[in-house]
User: What shape does this take?
Amino acid sequence: MEWTISLICLLILASDALAAGEAAFPRGPGLYFSPFKLIPLILLYFAWVRTCWWVDADTRVVKLPRETWNPLLFFCGLGACLVFLLLPWLYGASLLIALALFLTPTFAYVALRNEKVPPDERVLTKRHLQELGHRYLRLKAPKVEKEQRPVPIRFIGKSSKGDLDPRRVARAQGSKGYQAALLMVHDAIKLRATDIHLEPTKEDMTIRFRIDGILQPSEPFPRATGDGVVNIFKVLADLDITEKRKPQDGGFSAEVEGRTVDFRIATAGSVVGEKLSMRILDKEQQVIDLARLGMRGKMRDQIRDLVTQPHGLLIVCGPTGAGKSTTLYACLNEIDRYQKNVITIENPVEYQIENVTQIEINERAGKTFATELRSILRQDPDVIYIGEIRDHETAEIACQAAQTGHMVFTTLHANDTITALGRLIDLGVAPFLIGSSVSAVLGQRLVRLLCPRCKIRYKPNPDLLRRANLPADKIKHFYRAATPDDLDENAEKDEQGEPIPCSHCGGTGYFGRTGVFELLVITDAIRDLIRESPNLNAIKAEAVKSGMKHLQEDGLRQVIEGRTSIQELLRVCK
Assistant: This one.
């Protein structure tokens, strides 16, 4: 349809040119025309068609209003056609008016979109025109220095004691790859990454960002630049840059758009070089509110009642990266920290909490969970947060503290709530002590949320609904992440005709995460089972009888509400 309209407009222009030529140069019978007048018109026409197509595609990428720019470009070009139709005898004036009608909105759009994109993506600049000349006219490639993108980030070095050290920043700024390090960190923060992995190969330094719990590749560095970036981070964290085989760990900070972001790094030697992992601790991404964790309203009320009790032991269990510490930070936020003495023991301290005494573990200095826990019991605490139970001594002291008038929060690596009780028994804690001290166990996982802009609705399989004990007559549809096939069929196209991935989620189909939970409240019946004969199957049966919902059941609620997909739930809750 578009080519048909273009052909009709071209015929109109051609007839105008023929009429203009006949009026200026009267000739005998025959179809005569002036090529010197027709060729500029054809070039102008095709330039207008190409510009309209480019603007239509570009507005989708830079998020400018298509409904404004598409009609403006189209009707200005149509006006140029009417000028030649109405003034065929004034060829020169008509050409100038047509050029003005074509170039004015084009340059206006270019000026506006260039303000919204990085310098290396701007068009009709000196660099862009030189690149076009080299690409299409085979002109000599210009020797132009690459423009450096301004990065709104400033590194803050720290000494091994945690004090600010400006000399380290000055030393890092003079190192090779400093600008590349700034850009990499800034891009990771913009993409909501929680970790950065720099992994060496023989040729380059691979970079991967962990976004929503999944590692995603980024543009790699050349090996020399990558090694320089690793050394920069080691300098900022006060590590030994000459030691590339033994593991080291440290931290530094950065100012990013007016806020402070902390980084925790760890290095390890490999057969091809030094690998570096960096954890990003961004307070802006911190969730310290139970209402934002994704819990059901009833479970949220149960947790509030548990954390405000005068004594007891609340255990949050799950694998690494399941958000256990985040949940306990949210629990601490529910406590009146101005009337209660709250002390935490962490390894390391990830986020600063107002009016809370936070102690960091340092095993090399003899500061372990068990030794620090003994010392803080003499500090008259009301609430104690233990970062993790790892050994028999820590577990036993935590249970004893819960029995002596303290509210204790802690985490434990276990697959589910029932297994967490078995883990305490395996650590050597007496069953009667577990039954008397533990108030509840909260198991959790993090599932990715479907992107609201590109998720696909589909009708679920009735057999799947029956196996999940869901009413097939009431559930009409589920949602899933968009696939490349969906993009090929429905997505907008770029200039090369390739589908443009969703700009909101970057084509992953997911944006953000939420929790799925399993809460085991220790009732009197369960306490008796733990004390008498700790049979995990009997405890599990009694917990289900008391109303405990498994992780998969809680996750199905998120699937039914359209917040996540059944595939994501099965991936996380296997």
